[in-house]
Known about the structure:
By secondary structure, the protein is an alpha+beta fold.
Amino acid sequence: MSERWSYKxxxxxxxxxxxxxxEVEAADGAIGKVDKHSDEVSDAYLVVDTGVWIFGKxxxxxxxxxxxxxxxxxxxxxxxxxxxIKGAPEFHExxxxxxxGYHEALSAYYGLGGPFGGxxx
Length: 121
């Protein structure tokens, strides 16, 4: 894993904080709520339930996409647009738990070789 799977030091996330139910804001508006999350070192992520916005799809966002966690407002800001999140691979819990190819596809989408040219937009 890499820094894509770790929170930025500037995001204001405190390890151990339960982010379940927090609203998630893309760069251009609300996208859903956190359904699951992980704080594991080098494997931190959010699973966001997009609800009716994209027909109940859940997406996995690497922790590096988080720009700010507002504990008072229970809101997480990420550095992706709605369209970028809509185009992300759908979250599949069974694949996430042990399919290396799934993690490689997610890494490619969010990092080197992905549609953003290896940079966090």
